[in-house]
Design a protein that fits this description.
Distance between the termini: 29 Å
Largest sheet: 4 strands, antiparallel
Structural class: alpha+beta
Number of strands: 4
Number of helices: 2
Shape: elongated
Mean pLDDT: 94
Order of helices and strands: HHEEEE
């Protein structure tokens, strides 16, 4: 498993380097390098790219959690089996808004909603 993990780390680093190269190309097209930029401009571009990656990974990770919840969960109050539905939801994260899937169940006996992944 360590070899697989290490290979994924190397692949991730290669992808990050490629994305950084694309960012430089886009900033060049926007004229950032027409004159010597202030370092804060370089830093802002990197931070914006980082926030985008953060939102994308949060969305993907949250969707993975939602996918693993299954179709039926027991109500935390009465223990009755309840159907789980998945709904798309916009959440405000530290790095900005992101859309994610959220599992939600309703117990007709208790007349309450509950969120299995919470």
């Amino acid at each position: 498993m360590d070899a697989v993990y290490d290979a994924l780390e190397r692949e991730k680093l290669q992808l990050f380097k490629r994305v950084a190269e694309i960012e430089v190309q886009q900033q060049r097209q926007r004229g950032l390098f027409d004159k010597v930029p202030h370092f804060s401009q370089i830093e802002d571009a990197g931070r914006n790219l980082g926030r985008l990656l953060s939102r994308l990974s949060q969305t993907r990770l949250a969707n993975e959690v939602a996918a693993g919840e299954g179709c039926v969960r027991d109500c935390p109050t009465c223990g009755k089996s309840c159907a789980v539905e998945v709904a798309r939801r916009t959440v405000s994260g530290l790095d900005g808004p992101l859309e994610m899937l959220e599992p939600k169940a309703h117990c007709p006996a208790c007349r309450r909603d509950f969120f299995p992944s919470a």
